[in-house]
Specification:
This protein is mainly α and 539 residues long. The chain is built from 23 helices and seven strands. The model has no long low-confidence stretch (mean pLDDT 96). The chain binds iron/sulfur cluster (SF4) (2 copies). The site of one iron/sulfur cluster has 16 residues, from helix 6, helix 9 and helix 10.
């Protein structure tokens, strides 16, 4: 935690009094800790994106292109013509206010422009002024605003204070999807080179090497080899982890954090153990070594460019179908966009478990099945030998990632797996889980250190719910199936709660899985002693 980040007691004193200035006033103060730094010119150049230059949001002069206003208005027109949903969302809000208090950034900051209805209005007011007869004729009286440089700065501030989590849309009687509005807002900003580095650098890395972290194929292979060695030490079994094996039945795609970050890495160990134990004919690939897709936080075009590798690699390796690991935005893209962006994937088959024979008809279009669906099916059919007591040192609660829970409706399978591999599971309050889950506060590319205060503010509702189950049930592990969550929730729970670890579901599966021929297990995948196997205190 950065030294200058305000303490939790200070941040928790939230002032919900509306500010004196009118909402139409676009002026914004770029206060340290509440915004993200601009994208480095070298990354924009690499991606061939407009207006690469050195600048920062707190600069007076943003060095916009001379015709920036036309670029934005033309970009808006193009998108209004192209996306029916965008035009609909600009037209139909009745300002009922049902969404107003549902955003974690509003709850944690008290800033009315973080109310979803008002965040959308920042764009909608420009739509009204330039694209509706009433706005053209009556301007401000019809809710229209002039497009000025201050409006661009305001968009930047607030569209990068929305994690595209879609919680607000659950409560909107019209189903207005603020994430889609934010996506368009960011897309327009990209046209004039106003973007954040934490999104654009992963995009550039991904475009160059296939993964966000810029890991080269030999680095990928090294990491997997390291995991295989570690597993051998722990279990006495050398698992196979094939890389780029042509003709394998299944291509397994995971977020790069799983093989390069902690606590994600323990999830990777769990996958490798599981696949070995059931004798799965699968392959990993360095070229499809990233399921995550920061294009979702950039533009539809970038999302398509970065997603293309998955089907291409499946085709090159001649697999039958694709299995996907624990990731959030990978699944939003895979589930909602992939088959129209880069499909149809007619060269693949409808996923079918080679172990149980179950056909995953829900994936008949994408040809990609979620690891929690796959593992639930194995457990349901009695294909795994599991010792739940090996997770007895954990009191578990589960965070539904926004993109998996709301984005693809995967609600029961994670719980089924958790309850099958551990004895102590406790749900957080109902209005903070499943479809109503609260965002970690750092998704959609906002997980940077310079933005830490805003992240902690956005993480307050989630932190609060974790504290509730920690105080009530002694919860000490928060599971999640999203790589961004695994990277950002540790800071959130340390800040708001303390004493709670974060981990993946397949880490718990790996702990509980009894492998044929394994040596006696005394530790979990983190190397911590299992309950009852602790060394005596004086040893
Ligand atoms: S999508 Fe999420 S972050 Fe964005 S306004 Fe809605 S609730 Fe807030
Ligand atoms: S709930 Fe929907 S209709 Fe009501 S104010 Fe929010 S976005 Fe508008």
């Amino acid at each position: 935690m950065a030294d200058e980040t305000p303490r939790p007691e200070e941040v928790a004193r939230i002032d919900y009094t509306p500010p004196g200035k009118k909402w139409m006033d676009p002026s914004v103060e770029f206060r340290k800790g509440t915004f993200c730094y601009s994208a480095a010119a070298k990354n924009l150049k690499y991606l061939d994106m407009p207006n690469p230059r050195d600048w920062q949001p707190f600069d007076k002069d943003w060095k916009l292109p001379p015709d920036w206003k036309n670029i934005i208005l033309n970009g808006m027109k193009e998108r209004l013509d192209k996306y029916r949903s965008f035009r609909l969302f600009m037209d139909i809000c009745v300002r009922c206010g049902a969404c107003a208090d549902k955003c974690h950034f509003y709850i944690g900051s008290g800033d009315p422009k973080n109310m979803p209805v008002l965040r959308a209005e920042l764009l909608r007011s420009i739509y009204r002024r330039y694209f509706t007869p009433a706005g053209k004729a009556f301007g401000k009286l019809a809710g229209g605003r002039e497009l000025t440089e201050d409006v661009i700065k305001e968009w930047f501030y607030y569209f990068y204070q929305c994690t595209e989590c879609r919680r607000c849309s659950v409560f909107c009687p019209y189903g207005i999807d603020q994430a889609e509005i934010t996506m368009i807002g960011r897309e327009l900003l990209n046209l004039i080179g106003c973007n954040i580095n934490w999104v654009i650098e992963p995009d550039a890395n991904c475009f160059r090497t296939g993964n966000h972290l810029g890991i080269q194929p030999h680095g990928f292979a090294d990491s997997i080899e390291f995991a295989v060695d570690e597993l051998e030490d722990m279990t006495g079994i050398r698992v196979e982890a094939p890389i780029m094996k042509k003709g394998a039945e299944i291509l397994f795609v995971m977020p790069s954090a799983d093989y390069f970050a902690s606590p994600h890495y323990y999830t990777l160990l769990g996958y490798l153990m599981l696949f070995h134990e059931i004798g799965l004919d699968y392959t990993l690939s360095a070229f499809a070594g990233e399921g995550g897709n920061f294009g979702l936080f950039t533009s539809h075009e970038m999302m398509k460019r970065l997603n293309a590798k998955i089907y291409q690699e499946a085709k090159r390796l001649k697999v039958k179908w694709i299995l996907g690991g624990e990731c959030g935005h990978m699944w939003r893209v895979a589930h909602q966009y992939m088959d129209t962006l880069n499909g149809p994937a007619d060269f693949l088959e409808v996923p079918k478990s080679p172990i149980t024979g179950t056909r995953f008809d829900n994936a008949r279009s994408t040809k990609m099945t979620h690891i929690c669906e796959f593992t639930s099916d194995l457990i349901h059919n009695g294909k795994l030998k599991l010792d739940k007591s090996r997770n007895d040192h954990w009191n578990v609660t589960h965070h539904d990632p926004c993109n998996v829970a709301r984005g693809m409706g995967l609600l029961e399978e994670p719980r089924y797996v958790i309850n099958s591999v551990c004895n102590h599971f406790h749900e957080m309050p109902e209005n903070t889980i499943r479809e109503q889950t609260f965002c970690c506060g750092s998704g959609a590319g906002l997980g940077t250190d310079e933005n830490l205060e805003m992240r902690m503010r956005g993480g307050l509702p989630r932190g609060n719910a974790v504290k509730y189950v920690k105080d009530k049930h002694g919860v000490n592990l928060l599971t999640t199936i999203c790589a961004i969550d695994k990277a950002t929730l540790p800071a959130v729970v340390d800040y708001w709660v303390g004493g709670v670890e974060v981990g993946g579901i397949h880490e718990l599966v790996g702990n509980a899985l009894v492998m044929k021929g394994e040596k006696e297990r005394t530790t979990d995948l983190r190397g911590e002693p299992l309950k009852g196997k602790e060394e005596p205190a004086d040893a």
